[in-house]
Each structure stands twice: as structure tokens, then as C-alpha cells.
């Protein structure tokens, strides 16, 4: 990328500052500061409103699984089960989506005919913008019905793996279904990121390996993947961030329980975001405030993940 | 957002059909070998599955792909060499990945289209749900369209100036600590889960107006929190693409800096900025969770007033119809989903048009 | 040049959007036809706007009432925001709505706060009774007799097979398979859950030891959102059983619940009976009609699992128009015709004449403050 930073290279005209300049620069700077204020506001309001319920909570917020907050009288609630479910759903989605997304990115950049590739690139971008509620509708209206029989046979043949242990939920509204829909949703994000880095692999690297007699796979393995790995990881982390915060699709599909369970074929677990959406409308007492505390935890988790992603992507820029 | 660097993608030796790499030492499979083997395994798969009475499209596809992968690697191993065999195996896997990913995406679009078209007509688009009782086969999404336009409109009115000015600050003025801080926190903001943005406004409203207040403006503010960082990011990228020579020429003519920005930099980048804004709009127009929390989910009548009463929007309409759960509700939900996807695609299409017709002829 | 081309483009887009937005209407249905207009409504002269908010359980019933009432009374608008019981009660207490719909009566603190807001007595009027059906999906079986403690043990996952002898004992004729029982509960906080759980804890005695709240207390089983979600989960699985608002249970097998010595099928009349047979809440004031449901009633033919949703109102309003509108609208809601409308549309159980008389007595006394 050959972009320059005009603020350092282009010297602005010296001389007395004009009123227009002052106003314009001031409002630009003001907007920037406003963004900082908004973000501080988000954090401050969430913390402020959650304080109410957290101080009244009679259970340990971080280790309790139950959610009994809709009362004014000794609420007891915690995010242990919710946080676990959130991470499990997003991580499963990531495990499913990343290899496939890298495959698609490779297909678009190195395998597909060029004309098809440009159309596919556009389609992938478009898919990233399909609203999550539509994915949820599709998941509940079509996907879970197809997955039911698939789960039964999965348990039949792979039931010895603890994660796939039965009894299988007969409705198909399981953690795995939710994760599959999440995977479909983050697929375009990871694909787009990976495709971008694959296209930036220096041509010299690729031609050099081909000239040495490498097959196409060897060229990808030795020249493309090492160069693109931080980009893939960064894309995956961004996808993870999206999956962690995804609300509607999970709320519509998953049959939730406030438990900590690895059994992805049984009904169970719940994510923070979906829990908030489901509980908010009838929340009373400390309910709303407690949900805001849960939202704060979600905010913290996504923050950590996103920082990680930025760090990894930024490191690539330094070494590239 | 993503940037596509076209330059390096064009003349790639790896593009198109696999180059036939004749080796002097080993033989190679003829060009027709791959399609022939694929057809053979497909036939075999169909046969075997038919014999077991388990012929379904899914089983057929899975069986064919696995069988083909095995057969082609063995064939290549025998005739060519181990490295070629691996290469052919990976090629199969990459194509299979692509095929696998197409399944949910095609089915998503197909289901929405086929289910949605049943109800999507002029009547559906031009009436609200006012006075429609659960047993009636009536009602439409007009009030939700109104809400979507009003809420995203206000969100855009809030976000675009803030986002654009901030990006101008970052590119044209910013320096030092403040610039770093803003860049960093815009990144942080990009990662805010949408429901947290909703909760933020809930908390804000609770402090200002007391509990349980919902209106369109609250929804718009929640959407702005999500939209601002996207606008900043894309505008920043576009402003950076404006060549410095233009700025310098303008300064050389004695034009003040702010006029340079307004009259030279912005017009040059306007196409990219518009595209970016439209993509940001497309992203927030489908947000559901923050709107359920802030703008309510039970409005049935047309409401243009952002500051009074609940406001329906298309995504929330889909969700609340699914929640009610009758057959007629699902029909409405699918039709509204189709309408929503059409709106998003339209925004995408417009963004494309804008960037094609108004793109400055600079470097390319 | 670029900018002017751009603004033409933006102008065209804007004009298109405006043209599109100019042709919608709020008249989804023809107000003249369809019999939507209510004959029994006692309209307020000059009309006005009445706002209420609260329980989503009443959403469908309210939609029917509002459609019929505003169809009959020209110039009157009624808004009901189904924001949830809790939010509805707090909006009522704030004074931002004139009445609230709530799945439970106001508790002591809320009554105190609401009394302050009204400057007078605040009343809970049980105007919406919805039977809760226990529905199941089991091949070859469409009726089951279950005693309260058996229901409790099924939902508590103590009984795990359909051919358990405790179930078989009350169902000698049914062909019960050796299938796992999959209980389905509501995943969202709801008044339906709260009422079902309080029924279990009252009626099932020692078989149900969980606390009563709007959240489902048992781990395991399936969960789904809303009554419709529960129904589709029951339909989608096998050996499933769940509790839903009766209006949703049409196509499923339902349980006749043991009450006293007999087993009672849910029906509107049977549900209305339990409400009549239950005593008034002790804390009630003269005009307040909140009830304590008697789940263990011996009343013959009473179906004990019901959701009673209240309309919460003040006895005195500051504005004359508010008082008149509340009186008139709630009067229509509890009228015979109003109750029939919501029974047809939302599957609720019409209240009995005796209860209607009591509520009407309170409504008659609503007035505007000095």
C-alpha cells in the first residue's frame, strides 16, 4: 500500500490562522474528541447502571450459573454459564468457519477463473451484510429441520467422542446448530480478510517457488500461507468478535439452559447476548440492571478478542 | 472494511485452469483424467447409495467428494508422483470447501426468495399492522419501513458528520497522542457488540427519562454508536487515497487549508466516501437487537415521530412475527426478510454505481 | 462538476424515497367491513387518546379490543405497547401511561408508589384470563390424564419415560411407548412460566420444591422462546411435553389435569371457574379485585392452570378525559362482547358475570380528581 500521511508530508501554508481554518479544524478535532466521550459514556453508563444490581447481588457474579434477578428482594445471579456458552458458541463457530473460509479465499484468489473470482468477491461482501435476523429466520425455518437427522447419525457413529454424546435433542435446536449458523455468518468476514492478504502476497515469492518446480499447493504452502498467516488469524479473531456479540440468530435458534455443558448435541447453554434479548422485555426489579452487568461482561470479552486481533494484524504490518 | 488491491491479483500464473506441468522424469495424468474420474466416482456413489437405499443429495455429494479425493490421489500417486498427488488432493479440498460454503448461502437466498415472494405485494408494502387482529389474513410492513427509514435516517444524520469530521481530523490535522488515542478507540468501538450498544442507550435513557421509555430516537442513537466507527474507517481510507500533489497545488495557490479540504480533498474522495457511507448504512439497517431494547417491538401503527412512542423497523418486525409464531406470522416474516434483503442489496448496488460513475480518474 | 453530478444523483435517490414513502396507510383492514366495530362500546364524546403499556401476554387480546373499540368510537385512539409487565408497571407508576397490563398484581412497594402517582387508590382488575395447556407430542396418544404431582415430576425430570407406571396408572387405555420424556419450557422470562410454576408448587406439594419466578427453575430439557416457540419445539421433537398459552395448543395432544378427584380438560369455562372459586387477595382495598388463585380447588370442573392478567388503573385521574377514556375502554374490555372478541382472537377465557359485575362496580367509581 502506497498511502502517505499528508499531515506529515504536506506542509500546510504558514502565516496567520484564518477564522475558517480555526472553526474547521476545531470542529474536526471536536468530533474526534466526541467519539472518545461517547465511548467513555458507553463504559460509564453501563458500569453506573450495573452497579445497582451488583451491589445487591447475594451470589458471586462470576461463579454463579443461576439467573434470579427479577426481584427487589435478594437477587442472586451470575454470568458463569452465560460466559461459558458465549465463548463455546463462538469458538465452535470459529473452528467450523476458519478452514472453510481459508479454502474459499484460496479458491477465489488462486483457483477460480478471474471473471468468476471478481463476482465471488462481490458476493462474499454482500453476504457479510445480510442481517443477522434473516440468518436466524433461515436457521429456525429451514436449517434446524435438516440438522435433526444429521445429529442422530452423528451421535450414532461419533457418540464415543464426549462432545457428541447423546441423548440427542430431537428438535435440532442445539448449541451446534447455533454455532453452524454463526459459522455461516462469520464465513464472509474471514474470507474477505484472508482474500485480501492472499492478494498481497508478493508476486516474486510466488513466481520464485513456481520456478523452482513447486506444485500449486507447494507454492501456497511455502509462499502464500506464511505470508498470510497473521491476516488469517486477524480475520478469524474479527469473526470471533462478531460471533461473540451475535444476538438474534442465537436467540431464535438455541434451546437454552443456564448450565455449563460441552454436549453440543443436547439442548443447553446460553450466550450472554441472546440471554439479554430474551430476558429484557419482561425484566423487573433488578432485572434490567443485572442484564446490563451481563452486557458489560460481554463488552469486556469482545474487547479482549478485538485487541488481540488488532495486535496480530498490526504486527504483520510491521514485519511485512 | 476490506480493501482490494487489484494490481497484484491480475497477472497471476496460478490463475485459471491448472497449468500442465510436464515433468521429464515422471508421467502425468492426461487432461481429461480429472473430469472422467469425477464422473466415474459420481456414478459409483449413486450406485452404491442406491444399493443401500440411502440416496439423498447430501449423502451423494459427500460420498462423491470423498471417493473422488481418494481415487484422484491414488491415480496421481501411481502415474505421477507424491507431490502431484498432494497437489491434486488439495485442489479437490479447496473446490469442496467452496462447494460446501455455497450450500447454506444458496439455500438461504433460495428459502427467503421462495417463501417471501408468496406475500410480498403492493398491499403488503403499503399498509401497516394497525387494527389487524391475530386471526386476520391482513396487514403489512409499511410502518416498519417508515420506522427503518426514520431510525436509520437519524442515525445517518448523527453518524455521518461526526464520522466524516473525525476522519478529516485523523488524516488532515491529527497528530500526536490525541490522534493515536482516537485511532485506537475507533478500533475498540468497531468491536462493540450491537446488543451492548442497545444496553448503553437503555442505561442512558434510564438516567435521563426513567425506566421503560422506548422511542425511535433511542434506537437511532444506538445505531449511531455502531455506525460511527465504520464511517470513520472507510472515510479515513478514502481521504488517504487523495494524492498529496492536489493539496500542495492548492496550498501553492494560496488557498487556506480548510478550503483545500472542502473544495479539493472532499470532492476528490466523494465517491469513495459515499460508497463507504452506504455500506455502513447497509450494515446498521439490519440491526435488530439494539432496536428491540430501545425502540420497542410491539408498535403496529405508522409512527413518523422519533421522539414519541415505540417504532417498528423491518428487522424487529421479522423477529416479532416469528415470536408470535402462527403460519401467517411466518409468511409475513419471510416477506419482510425478502424486503429487507432487497433494501440491503439496493444499497450495495447503489454503492457500486456511485464508486463506478463518480470515481476520480487518478492513478488508474 | 463532480459535486453537481453527485447532487443530481442524490436528489433523484431522495425523490424516489419520498415518493415511496408517500403512499402508505394505516388502514390495513377496511374499518366498515369485517364486523370489527364494537356495538357494546360506550364511547366518550369527543374521543381522545388513551395510552396503556405492559404485559405481552395480552398483546393479541389487546389488538382485538383496540381494533373493535376504535372501530366503533370515532376520534378515539388507544395505544397499547406490549413492553412487558415490569416495564408496563413502571411506566404506569411514572405516569406516562394511563393504565398498565400486568401478569401479576402490584406488590406492596409498587402499590405504594402507584398510589402516590394516582393520588388515590390503585386497582388491579383481572380482565384477561388465559388457560395454560399442558401439551405433548407422542405418537398414537392425544389425551392424557395427569395428576399435579405427576406433572411436577415429569417437568422436574424425575419421571423420564412415557411408560412410567405413575403415568400409566391414570391412563389405563393409552398405549404408552418406551420413549424418553423431553420437557420443553419457555426460554424467555414470562408470566406463563410464573403461573405454571406457582401452580406446580401449590398443587404438587412435595414433588415440586423449586422457587416461584418468571424463569424456569429446572435444568435440562428443551427450551424455546414464547408460546409459539414452545409449540414448534413440541411439534418438532418426539416425546416432548410443554406448557403453552391454550390458544397455541390447537393441534397438539393436551393433558387433562387432575383437580380434586377428577381430571379436567382445559376449556374457557373451566378456566373461568377457577378464577371465581379463588378468594380475593387479602391486601385488596374496596375496589381492588386482585385474586389469590386457589390451585388446589375442589370446585367441580375447574381447570386449575391459568394465567390471570390484570389491567392496573387509578381510581382518580387528573384529567377528566383520562378518567372517561379508561372507564369507557376498560368497560368495553370486560363487557360480554369485549370478552368474546378476545376469546375469539386470542383464545382467552371470558370472565364470569359475577366478576364482571364486581369490576364494573369499580370502573363506575373512577373519576377525575379535584
Automatic annotation (TrEMBL), chain A:
CDD domains: TM_PBP2. Residues 83-309 form the ABC transmembrane type-1 domain. It is found in: Cell membrane. One of its GO terms (biological process) is phosphate ion transport. InterPro entries: MetI-like (IPR000515), MetI-like_sf (IPR035906), Phosphate_PstC (IPR011864), Phosphate_Transport_Permease (IPR051124). GO terms for cellular component: plasma membrane. It is a multi-pass membrane protein. The keyword Transport applies. One of its GO terms (molecular function) is phosphate transmembrane transporter activity. The chain crosses the membrane at residues 22-47, 79-112, 119-144, 164-190, 247-265, 285-309. Its main location: membrane. Keywords: Cell membrane, Membrane, Phosphate transport, Transmembrane, Transmembrane helix, Transport. It comes from the Bacteria. Pfam families: BPD_transp_1. Belongs to the binding-protein-dependent transport system permease family. CysTW subfamily. This is Phosphate transport system permease protein. The lineage of its organism: Bacteria, Bacillati, Actinomycetota, Actinomycetes, Streptosporangiales.
TrEMBL record, chain B:
Pfam families: BPD_transp_1. One of its GO terms (cellular component) is plasma membrane. Residues 145-351 form the ABC transmembrane type-1 domain. One of its GO terms (biological process) is phosphate ion transmembrane transport. It is a multi-pass membrane protein. The chain crosses the membrane at residues 32-54, 60-80, 92-113, 141-170, 182-208, 214-232, 264-282, 333-354. Belongs to the binding-protein-dependent transport system permease family. CysTW subfamily. This is Phosphate transport system permease protein PstA.
From TrEMBL, chain C:
Pfam families: PBP_like_2 (PF12849). PROSITE patterns: PROKAR_LIPOPROTEIN (PS51257). GO terms for cellular component: ATP-binding cassette (ABC) transporter complex. GO terms for biological process: phosphate ion transmembrane transport. The keyword Transferase does not apply. One of its GO terms (molecular function) is phosphate ion binding. The keyword S-adenosyl-L-methionine does not apply. Keywords: Phosphate transport, Signal, Transport. Residues 47-337 form the PBP domain. Residues 1-28 form the signal peptide. Transmembrane segments: none annotated. NCBIfam families: 3a0107s03. Belongs to the PstS family. This is Phosphate-binding protein.
